[in-house]
Amino acid sequence: MPETKVKKTEDFNEWYNEIVELADLCDKRYPIKGMNIWRPYGWTLMSHIDQLIKHEMNNTNHQEVYFPLLIPESSFKKEEEHIEGFGSEVYWITHAGLNKLDERWLLRPTSETAMYPTFSLWIRSHADLPLKTFQIVNTFRYETKQTRAFIRVREIHFFEAHTCHVDFKDAEKQINEDKEIAKRLFDKLCLPFIFGKRPDWDKFAGADYTISIDVLMPSLRTLQLGSIHQYRDNFSKPYNIKYETEDGKHAYCHQTTYGMSERIMGALIGIHGDNKGLVIPPEIAPTQIIIIPIIFKGKEKQIIETCGLLYEKLKNEGFRVKIDKRDITPGNKFYDWELKGVPIRIEIGPKDTEKKEFTIVRRDTSEKRSVSQNSSILIIKQIFNSIKEELSKNAEKILKENLHRVNTIDDAKNLKGIIELPWCGVQECALEIENILDGNTLGEPIDNIECKYTCPVCNQLGKTWMRYAKTY
Amino acid sequence: MPETKVKKTEDFNEWYNEIVELADLCDKRYPIKGMNIWRPYGWTLMSHIDQLIKHEMNNTNHQEVYFPLLIPESSFKKEEEHIEGFGSEVYWITHAGLNKLDERWLLRPTSETAMYPTFSLWIRSHADLPLKTFQIVNTFRYETKQTRAFIRVREIHFFEAHTCHVDFKDAEKQINEDKEIAKRLFDKLCLPFIFGKRPDWDKFAGADYTISIDVLMPSLRTLQLGSIHQYRDNFSKPYNIKYETEDGKHAYCHQTTYGMSERIMGALIGIHGDNKGLVIPPEIAPTQIIIIPIIFKGKEKQIIETCGLLYEKLKNEGFRVKIDKRDITPGNKFYDWELKGVPIRIEIGPKDTEKKEFTIVRRDTSEKRSVSQNSSILIIKQIFNSIKEELSKNAEKILKENLHRVNTIDDAKNLKGIIELPWCGVQECALEIENILDGNTLGEPIDNIECKYTCPVCNQLGKTWMRYAKTY
C-alpha cells in the first residue's frame, strides 16, 4: 500500500508540509505567501474544533460577539505597550477606492484595541460585571519568518475571549476557569499540553502576566497553541473602562483574555498523524466511519444493499458516515481514507454479508476484527473510546519522555525536548541558557514547584524552574 | 407599557435605526462609520440564519471552503469588467509593518478573483465537475452613501456560493437549484420576495445575467437581499478554468454564483417588527420562549419551582428557553422580551400554579391563553406554526397590495411600492421611466409573462414588463 512520499518517522517537517495538502486540508498555492486556502476537508475539521470551543464558551456563560476587522490607528495607539508589541506586524489600509484615507486603518492583529473603547460604553455599574465575551475571527500578522500551514501563517483563524471583572481576584477566578476549559478541550482533542508562566520579557504586550499553552511536536520542538492573559487594569486605564461600585465609587475593571488559534490543527496533524497520513480523534473527525464495499462479481447487489442498510443505521445513530462507491480498487480507497485519518473503516464483502458480519479496521492501530451486524453500534462506540485513549496515551508518553528536569547545563546539553533548569529569576541568566541550549524560554511551571538547586549561570539559589525548548 | 420612542407605523426609517440598537442587535458607536459591532443577541440571530443557509448548502452537496481575505491587485485585474464594477469601492493595503508592499492588496469585495485562479488548478477533467463550493465571510465595500445597520454597511457579513459546470445547460440547472434554495430559505424566514432579472446595464460586473432577490420593506422601498448570477464562461476564460471533456478535448467551464448578505437581518427586523420591537420567527429566534414568574408574597418558592420544572421540560424538548428571574417588575420584563421579539412568553403566577396551568402570550398577536401544563409541548408547537403562518401571511399581503401592474405612466405616478410597466427592451426608455417615477429598475419578472401593451415612452410594443421601485 502506498504511503506518503516522506515518512513522518524520517523527516517530520517535510512530512507535515506534504500531508497538509495531500489530505486536502489546505492549498498553499494562493498568490500571497502565508495565506492559504482552506479546502472543505480542512475547514470542516476546523469547524468541529470551533464547535467544541463554542460549547465550552456557552457552558461558562461567555457571549459571542463580532467586532469589526479594521481598527483606526488612533484607537490602536492608546495603549503604548500594545503598539510596541504589534506595530511592526500589522497591515495598513491607506486608500479606499481612489481616495487616500484621512486616518490609516489596520487589520486586527488581535482585538483589544477594537473592543475596549466599546467596553467602556457597555460597562456602567458592578451589575454589568463580569462581562464575558468571545469571538472567532481571522487575525492578521505580517510574518517575516518562514511560513508553515496552520503553524505560522499571515491570516490566522483565531479564537479570543475577553472578560472584564470588578477586581484582580475575580479576574484570577476567570483565569482558573480558562485553565479548566483548556483541560477539557485538549482532553477531547487527545492533546496533552503544559501550562507555563511566561517570563516578564516575553509576555503579551500589555499583560500583567501570560500563561502559555504548549504542546510538544514529534520534532521535539514545542508549539504554542494558545495563551491566557491577566491584564489587571493595564488596558482599562487607557481605554477608560470604569464601573460604579456598590457603594457608589468608581473603579477600573480588571481584564483577562484567552486566545487560541488554528495551530490546534497543526498540533492534531503533527502529534496524531503517522506514515500513512492523518489520524483524527473521533469526536472531531469530518467523517468518522467510511464504509467500503468489497465487490465480488455476482454479489454486487447484495453487498451494496448491506452497505446501504448499515449506512442508514449508523447515520440514524448520529455518526458521520460515508460509503465509498467510487470505481477504483478497495486498496486505493483504503489509501485515501487512511490519508484523511478517518477513525474507523468498515469493509463489507460477500463473506461478511453471508455471516451477517462486517470487518472493522481501526485507523490508529490498523487492528482488524469481525463484528456481528447486531452489535455494531456498541462496538463502534467502544472503539471510538479506545482510539481516544490510545491517542492520548501515545502523546502523553512522548511528552513525558521528553520533559527533563536537570540541575546543570552539562546535564541539559545533550537532551532534546523540554528542559527544566533551576532559575534565579534574573533575565540575563535565562537568556544565557537560551543561547547555550539554542532554545527559547517557555516559562515557569504554574504549580509553584519548589526549587532547591542553584541557577546554573549565577549560582544563586533558584527561585523556580524555567523551561527551555526549541520552538515553532 | 412603554413602546419604542418612534413608532414603526409613524416613521419606519427612524424606528428601524432605533430598534437595531434598542434590541441589542448591534452597536453603531464603533469609530469607523458603517462598521458596526455585532452584539451577542444580533450575532446569535445571524448565526441561526447562517445555519439555515449551511443546511441548504449541505443538502445540495455544496462544500464549504475559506479563501483568503486579501487579493493581490494583479489577480483582481484579470477580469476587466469586474474591476470596472468594483475598482472604486475597494480598500487597499499598501503597507505591512514599516514596509511598503511591492504590490497592493485589496480586501475582498466578493471572492471571484480570489477563488478562480485556484479553481483553474482544482479542475482538470469533467469528473471534477460540477464543483460546488460556498463560504460565509465578511466582504468590504467603500460605501459613500449614507450607511444603515445591516442594510448598507462597509463590512458585510456575506454568503457566497461559487459553482463550475461542464456547460451552460448544467449551469442553468444550478440556477434553478439556487432558486429553489431561496424559496425554501425565505419561507422559513417568513419573508416573501420577488425574483427579477436585472436589466443588462444593471447586472453584476462580469455576469451574463443576474437574478435579484428583492423584498418590500414597510417604507415601500425594496431591499435586495441577494442575487444569483449566470457567468457563462466570462470568468473562466480570463482565469483559464478549463477541463478535459469525455472525448479528450478541452473546454472552458460555465460558472454561477449565488450571494446573500446580512441584509436578511434588515428584512427580518423591518418586515416583521412592530411598535413594540422585533418579532422573530420561531425557527431562528435566539430565545424562543421566555418564562416569567409572577411572584406573589408567600408563594415565591412554589412559583419559582414550577417555572424551573417547565424550563427543564421545554429545554429537554429542544426549545431555546430562558427564565427571567431579575429583580424588576413583570411589566418591565414583558417590555424587554417584546422588544427582542421572543415568540412566546409564558407567565406563571400563583393561580396558574394551583390550577396546574400557565399563561401563554404570543408576541405577534399579543393573544393570551391559559394552557394546562400537560398539553404544553403540543400547544407551543402549534403556536410556533401559527406564528410562522401569520408572519408570512401579513408580509405577503403587504407585498401583494403594493405590487402594481399598470400600462401608463399616468397610472403609475401616484402609486407606491413596486410598479410594473410594459417595456420595449430599450435602455433609454427604462431610464426615462426611472427619472419620471424617481425610482430604480428592479428587473423583469423571470416567468416570462407576456406583455401585450406598448412601452409608455416610445410606444413600441412591450417585449416584457419592467419593475420600478424606490430602493434601499
Q: How many β-strand runs of chain A?
A: 23
Number of helices of chain A: 13
CATH topology-level name of the largest domain in chain A: BirA Bifunctional Protein, domain 2
What fraction of residues of chain A sit in β-strands? 25-35%
Can you tell me the number of structural domains of chain A?
Answer: 3
Named at the architecture level, the CATH assignment of the largest domain in chain A is: 2-Layer Sandwich
Largest interface summary: A-B, 52 and 52 residues
Helix content of chain A: 25-40%
Oligomer designation: homodimer
The structure class of chain A reads alpha+beta
Measured between the Cα atoms of the first and last residue of chain A, the distance is: 32 Å
**CATH structural class of the largest domain in chain A:** Alpha Beta
Uncertain residue ranges of chain A: none
* Strand adjacency order, main sheet of chain A: 3-7-8-14-11-10-9-22-23-21-20
Largest sheet of chain A: 11 strands, mixed
The CATH superfamily label of the largest domain in chain A reads Bira Bifunctional Protein, Domain 2
Structure report:
2 copies of one chain form a homodimer. Chain A has 13 helices and 23 strands. Chain A is an alpha+beta fold and 472 residues long. Chain A has 3 domains: 12-272, BirA Bifunctional Protein, domain 2; 287-385, 3-Layer(aba) Sandwich (Rossmann fold), CATH 3.40.50.800; 403-469, 2-Layer Sandwich (Translation Initiation Factor IF3), CATH 3.30.110. In chain A, the strands form 5 sheets. The first copy, chain A, has an 11-stranded mixed β-sheet. Chains A and B meet through strand 2, helix 2, strand 3, strand 5 and strand 6 of A and strand 2, helix 2, strand 3, strand 5 and strand 6 of B. Strand 5 (91-96) of chain A pairs antiparallel with strand 5 (91-96) of chain B, so a sheet runs across the interface.
